[in-house]
TrEMBL record:
The gene is rpl13a. Keywords: Ribonucleoprotein, Ribosomal protein. This is Large ribosomal subunit protein uL13. GO terms for biological process: negative regulation of translation; translation. Pfam families: Ribosomal_L13. The lineage of its organism: Eukaryota, Metazoa, Chordata, Craniata, Vertebrata. It comes from Sinocyclocheilus grahami (Dianchi golden-line fish). NCBIfam families: L13_A_E. GO terms for molecular function: mRNA binding; structural constituent of ribosome.
Length: 204
């Protein structure tokens, strides 16, 4: 039985769209909750123009008499990725619907995920899977060229987040250094207690 409390936070940047979607689809079906952030950084194999033509062909697919009834063409990178995962799930069944509800997708890294550890999926990384000479497209640029309006805003918010993260990391390094120094200062005083704690497996 899957650990339902486990939330997998995946940083989408540098992953291949289809490979990442397949792995995420499997995980949500197994019962894990999955959050994919930075969807605008996902890659698609094949050059940009080829992928754009494919998406424009997809935009032409609509209900002839009433286009508002679908199919719906999402423009945001996060929703494009979500739709890719949906295509890999039996989403018209209760099991598939429940699996899809366990998936969250975001452009950029909004709170609270900006302060959480993010994972990568090695089996889906572009740098692992594609030859260095092969062309690829970035989902954020593709989305922008087919009607996504928030590329600039997302980029600005990402820059702000990175600045805050840099400050936090600098502060963390100083705290760690001071902690190590404090431990070294009292090492001789607490040596006898340390030995007892090691004996009982409290300290390793």
């Amino acid at each position: 039985m899957a650990d339902v409390l486990l939330v997998l936070i995946i940083d989408g940047r540098g992953h291949l769209l289809g490979r990442l979607a397949a792995i995420v689809a499997k995980q949500v079906l197994l019962g894990h909750k999955v959050v994919v952030v930075r969807c605008e950084g996902i890659n698609i194999s094949g050059n940009f123009y080829r992928n754009k033509l494919k998406y424009l062909a997809f935009l032409r697919k609509r209900m002839n008499t009433n286009p508002s009834r679908g199919p719906y063409h999402f423009r945001a990178p996060s929703r494009i990725f979500w739709r890719t995962v949906r295509g890999m799930l039996p989403h018209k069944t209760k099991r598939g619907q429940a699996a899809l509800e366990r998936l969250k997708v975001f452009d950029g890294i909004p709170p609270p995920y900006d302060k959480r550890k993010r994972m990568v999926v090695p089996a889906a990384l572009k740098i692992v899977r594609l030859k260095p000479t092969r062309r690829f497209a970035v989902l954020g640029r593709l989305a922008h060229e087919v009607g996504w309006k928030y590329q600039a805003i997302t980029a600005t918010l990402e820059e702000k987040r990175k600045e805050k993260a840099k400050l936090r990391y600098t502060k963390k390094k100083v705290t760690l250094k001071l902690t190590k120094q404090a431990e070294k200062n009292v090492e001789s005083k607490i040596a006898k207690y340390t030995e007892v704690l090691k004996l009982y497996g409290v300290l390793v």
